[in-house]
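Hi team,

As requested, here is the filled-out complex form for the zinc ion run. I kept the field names the same as last time so the parser does not choke. Let me know if anything looks off before we queue the next batch.

— J.
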Amino acid sequence: MEEVQDKFVAMVSAKAEVDLPVSQFEPRSMLAVPEHNIEMSKFPSIDYHNHLDAQESRSVLRVMDACGVEKCINITMRVGDEAFEMHRKFKAAAADRFDTYAWFDWTDPHEDGFWERCVERVERFVDAGFVGIKIWKDLGLTLKDKNGELLKVDDERLVPFFEKAGELNFPVMFHIADPDAFFLPIDRFNERYEELAAHPDWSFYGSHFSKAELLAQRDSIFQRHPNTTFVCAHLAEKSEDLAYVGRLLDANANLYVDIGARTAELGRQPYTARDFFLKYADRILFGTDLVPDEEMYRLHFRFLETRDEYFDYPSHASRQGRWQIYGIELPDDVLQKVYRENALKLLSR
Ligand SMILES: [Zn+2]
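And here is what came back:
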């Protein structure tokens, strides 16, 4: 009997690839379940979170037309005159299909009058027809003031900036911090191991402020400026814990969230995600944060509109985590709000 067993093991190991590196493991699902290719969003959609500086407007428009995307917001990463140039370029290509978000300008925080200039810049953006301004995670992680002190997200010197944005109905978008896994060691327990191993510079493990501290600083701003509208990109950086995002939305009527680059997180918790969308349908914005192409948009639609199971999530070249997603089949009224109506509320201010 033992001899038979040994023979069997020998036969299997001859055929098996053992000690395969994780990076080369590409399992193909054997599941036979329904698949739907949703070519166009069921209702016209607005991509509230994209970065188009490097894109050619005509090819973006082609993708938008093919997918039912009515409008795309370019969050420019240019500052100074180049930001205005970028805004003009897209407006000239199709005024009703593109809008521009400004990027907070940190080129001169060490020069006199910086904090006053932040306020003046908001006025200029509003005059030029920009639709909001984004503050990125360099605030809190790397930016230092004149004295070499790391700037806190809720630095008091930014108060006049937030107040001016509120006064002018100019939404402020925050992208502070990143997924929880980016603040943990890049080791075998890290659920984003492959992504971080490919981009170790994306890790903030050992950052001066912990992720919880960064978010607490950010969250205090919503309370401090109740008349300013805020958009928290990437589900407020807490898509792993939608109960946290729900509490944040409950506590702050002036807050919206976008789903940019978080379909992977939402689609691996379809029951929780669906409940979240139903409860906060008025506060969630469709946004992708990915280079516009047909497949990218269609995977978003498949996630939001169908009950397809276990399929690829839209992502950059490198995958976020080793899992598949499930569709959440949202009802029409929720889809209309998330795809378009919530964005229109912010754009028509
Ligand atoms: Zn972004």
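Two things worth flagging: Strands lie at 45-50, 69-75, 98-103, 132-135, 172-174, 230-232, 255-258, 284-285. The chain has one domain: 43-347.

Thanks,
J.
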